[in-house]
Amino acid sequence: QKFAAGELDARLPVSDIPELNRLSVSFNRMAASLEGVEQRRRELVSDLSHELRTPLTVVRGYLEELADGELEPSQEVYQRMVRETKRLERLVNDLQELSKAEAGYLPINLQPINLRPLLESLVEKFADQILEDGPDLRLESPVGLPLVLADIDRTEQILVNLIGNAVRYTPTGAITIRVWFESGKLWIAVSDTGIGIASSDLPHVFERFFRGDRSRTRYSGGTGIGLAISRCLVELQGGQIFVESQLGKGSTFQFFLPLA
């Protein structure tokens, strides 16, 4: 009755009667799961409100000043508003993707694939975007890779997220994409010599909207959802993803996919 009335922390006590005790255990497991869902729902609403507020406030501010004649229309002003609306669009798209992934509704097309061509093309693509005084981007991979059972498009999405983050937070030094295989798994690690992540932040890096350094990351192009999506995509393909990092020394994100 307490649970039905909204007290989601209510639990059934242990019973001396085996049948009632099994019922209590099952009920308490269900109650804990529902309580967790409700907690995540509240957090999502709070996080989403916070993330949407900033670009909306910026756009509204410009529009009000333009309407009142306090700001002269210019290409720069319109470009700023376009940037903010694009950020809103990315946020909404990422949220939709994350929602589908967490609910298990995201279509995954698993098939045997060779990741070597994908890795080479991504290294070439990102190398073209790095400035001359930027980090050195290199691939360390055996030429003959075994096939993995994966979705090529979703795997590319994971790698774009990880390499993109490494490029964003590594002004100088090196970014290394290392590939190896063992015990039925193909491992891919993206290591950088960038700003790193504080040890207190490491347990939270795969949580939606988490930012270790909000002032640095809010306007760097990310939405704070990329790593959460990456974790879901890795797990949907039967793998796992991990992170190691030291503040000021760099980070390594590595994940595995099952061999075909």
Mean pLDDT: 87
Major sheet: size, sense and barrel closure?
5 strands, mixed
Please report the number of helical segments. 6
Distance between the termini: 50 Å
The secondary-structure class comes to: alpha+beta
Strand tally, please? 7
Order of strands in the sheet with most strands: 2-4-5-7-6
The shape, in one word, is: flat
Helix content: 40-55%
- Which range does the strand content fall in? 15-25%
- Cα-atom Rg, whole angstroms? 23 Å
| Helix and strand element order | HHEHEEHEEHHEE
- Give start-end ranges of low-pLDDT stretches: 214-221
What does this 3D model show about the protein?
The radius of gyration is 23 Å and the shape is flat. It is α+β, with helices and mostly antiparallel strands and 260 residues long. The chain contains six helices and seven strands; from the N terminus they run H-H-E-H-E-E-H-E-E-H-H-E-E. 48% of the residues lie in helices and 17% in strands. The longest helix has 51 residues. Strands 2-4-5-7-6 form a five-stranded mixed sheet, with helices on one face.
Features:
260 residues; alpha+beta; five-stranded mixed beta sheet; two-stranded antiparallel sheet; 7 strands
